[in-house]
Amino acid sequence: MASHQDSEAHEPASEPKPKPEPLPFSRFQSRRSVVYGTRGVVACTNPLAAQAGLKILEAGGNAADAAVAVAAVLNVVDPSMTGIGGDVFALYYDAATGAVRGLNGSGRSPLAATRAAVCRSVGVPVIDDGGGPGTGRIDEERAAATSLPRSSIHAMTVPAGAAGWVDAVEQFGSGNVTLAQILDPAVRLAENGFAVSRLSAYYWALAEDELRTKSPGNAGRDLLKADTTTQGADVVWRAPREGEIFRCPPLAATLRRLGEYGKNGFYAGPVAQAIVEVARAKGGLLSLEDLRHHASLPPDIHEAMSLPLRIKAAPGVVPASSSNNQKTVRLWEHPPNGQGIVALLAMGILNELERTGKIPPLASMAHNSAPYLHAVISALRIAFADAGWWVADPQQDKHKDEKHNNQLFDPQRLLHPAYLAERALLFDPDRALNHVPETRGYPQADDRQTDEADLDHLQSETLTALHTSDTVYLAVTDEAGNGCSFVNSMADLFGARLVPQGTGFALANRGHMFRLGPADHPNVFAGGKRAYNTIIPAILTEDVEDNTNTRTDSPTAGDHDAPQPPKQQHRLAAVFGVMGGFMQPQGHVQVLLNMHAFGMDPQTAVDAPRVCVGTNVFWTPDPAAQVHEGHVYAEEGLPDDAVAGLRALGYTVQWLRGYARSLFGRGQVIRADRDPVTGERVYAAGSDGRGDGHAVPL
Predict the structure, then answer these.
(1) What residue spans carry the Basic and acidic residues bias annotation (predicted)?
(2) Which of 23, 87, 312, 696 is most buried as measured by Cβ atoms within 10 A of its Cβ?
């Protein structure tokens, strides 16, 4: 018998075969492949919701129509995370114009609420001034050190999700499908029932006790399952378990009413009355006037904020420039009161660190190595310090100083190159950035050089709000090339865990993100105001500047042969997002860099292990995932030597495993590519393995 060595010796000589590269996803929990499509893609956290989105696309709806259908089904199948009782933010890319517009669908505090009354309710001393319980002189030092508890009835805000859905369809929708058609898949699932998924069942159970007991008249039973199989009891009301069937006819009726009557079906009539009754029964100030006021406001539609990515891209990520065309990738985020500015600031600081040579190009670093993570963490910490002061209601954030008295704050000032350069100076390549000055001045926005930056003063402060990762993010693209980035949230698990009688949905408690002091804080509590909101969608575009010289046809032009300024066009590059409290901008930065700097495909980019920077004390229903200020949380799968390197730089790093990994959020990505031969559009999508969903092409 010939030996193995002998047999090799008699084989004909051939070129050695290159060893295959190890599959990148082999390091991660997910084993999913990239999903490709040409007519559109829906990516979300539940397959039933994705099917609803596809149904609307098939019926002639566009990406915005489908996004609302997906959100409505998620309200049914994952009610702890989202619903019409919560908030909505969306970005919509219009392929016909190249514009990226934002929708702010967040709720306000009751008009009758006052800071003095709220401070009294949580034990902050307020000296009576004779004006009644809503007035008085507040102990500002105590107020600044006190958070509004998420359990406080004063954390309840106007339920804005319903209006947000209506506005998204009316402002961005195709007009080919009605709101009733869009909500029909959700109505049918709520009526006929569905099998509960694993993660939904897990989080549902965490809120079971409060759903059972907190709402007057046992209204919370609408969101619980009647179990008649338990020995020694007639009926036990509990959270549905994985794989069990759950039905919610009251929610079906609410959604049907919204589809038929629009905003009036929710903000007036029996649904509105039930909302006010449950709030008043718990000592809240929410009124029918608050609901009418919200429904009467014009849709809050505006241009999104953006920042060009100047960091070097991985080979092949950005098409090579020709003599006539230059391409730049641009990140779009929702302006405040959402925290999208954090992602823009962090990317702007990383741009500056690369530009000045304080760090080597990120693309040249080892992915998730200690030096790479140190740069990302530092940029995020600086960005969060700014957000802690400046993210607030854009209609009430008035900065009062000698130069800019009573002007609405323009968050674009934070992205001025001189200001980004100033903040980038805080980075130390050899040491953890554990103390970050927070700007409380008014960032300059003129063209002076960095060394002349006129910043009033810097002060160290952090957010004191508590937050949880209870949100859904979804992404949709369509055949026309439109894209909708959509996020819907309850703030906490089932929000305030209060259910209006006979409606089948819970009310959100976003107001716990307000500051109670100091009085001049932009995000300080006030009646009729929107709080700092963590939920943010994102979009990437490829800016194409056509530098071809064109002649003007104007008879008044002085020089017909003079070249005209280049015309910039925004071409959709990706619709993406990562849900999960303060993790959201951190997820945006990390997933974006995975694709842009390291050339990862969408699925690998969302699968890759992440870090989470503890900006403050997070609240999360899972004690294993609680976050503390100054800590860095490392997801299992990160290299051991990277964590050791971060600790050597001075970081306090804690590993998170199992369900505690919920802290790192759940993301979706749909990238808009082109066939290299034909130029036809091809969508490439990935859905986070940390969730129950997937990406599905049309």
Answers:
(1) 1-20
(2) 87
Token output for 519: 């009085």
Residues 6+ apart with CB under 8 A from 602: 34, 574, 576, 595, 669, 670, 671, 684, 685, 686
| Element at 42 (helix H, strand E) | strand 41-44
Q: H or E stretch including 491?
A: strand 483-491
CA 423 to chain centre: 24
Residue 412 tokens read as 């674009």
Return all residues near 556 (Cβ < 8 A) that are at least 6 apart. none
- CA pair distance 381, 55, nearest whole angstrom: 42
Rounded CA-CA distance 689/569 in Å is 34
**φ and ψ of 573, to 5 deg:** -110, -35
Q: Where do the H-state alpha helices sit in 521-674?
A: 583-596, 602-607, 640-649
Note the pLDDT tens digit of each residue in 147-183: 889 899 999 999 999 999 999 999 999 999 999 999 9
Distance CA 660, CA 111 (A): 38
Largest separation between any pair of C-alpha atoms in the chain? 106
Hey, is 682 helix, strand or coil? strand
Token pair for residue 198?
């694993």
Cα(695)–Cα(684) distance, rounded to whole angstroms? 9
Residues 670, 574 contacting (CB under 8 angstroms): yes
pLDDT tens column, 561-584: 555 555 668 999 999 999 988 999
pTM score above 0.70: yes
- Cα distance between residue 41 and residue 670, in whole Å: 7
Residue 541, both tokens: 């575009």
Q: H helices of 224-330, where?
A: 249-261, 264-267, 269-281, 288-296
**How far out from the chain centre does Cα 563 lie?**
42
Instruction: Report the alpha-carbon distance of residue 477 to residue 440 in Å, rounded.
Output: 40
Q: What are phi and psi of 527, to 5 degrees?
A: -70, 140
Predicted confidence at residue 17, as pLDDT, reads 47
Buried b (16+ CB within 10 A) or exposed e, 243-270: eeebbbebbbbbbbbbbebbbbbbbeee
> Which SS3 state, helix, strand or coil, does residue 470 take?
strand
Distance CA 494, CA 471 (A): 10
| Sequence-ordered list of residues with C-beta below 8 angstroms from that of 395, at least 6 positions apart, any chain | 408, 530
The DSSP line for 568-590 is EEEEEEEEEEEESTTHHHHHHHH
Three-class secondary structure of residue 146 per DSSP: coil
Peptide bond into 325 cis (omega under 30): no
Q: Are 672 and 477 in contact (CB under 8 A)?
A: yes
The token pair that represents 91 in the structure block = 């970005």
CB contact set of 245 (below 8 Å; sequence gap of 6+): 193, 194, 195, 196
Query: In Å, what is the CA distance from 436 to each residue of 378, 387, 412, 615?
Result: 9, 12, 21, 11
Q: What is the DSSP letter of 480?
A: T
SS3 at position 370: helix
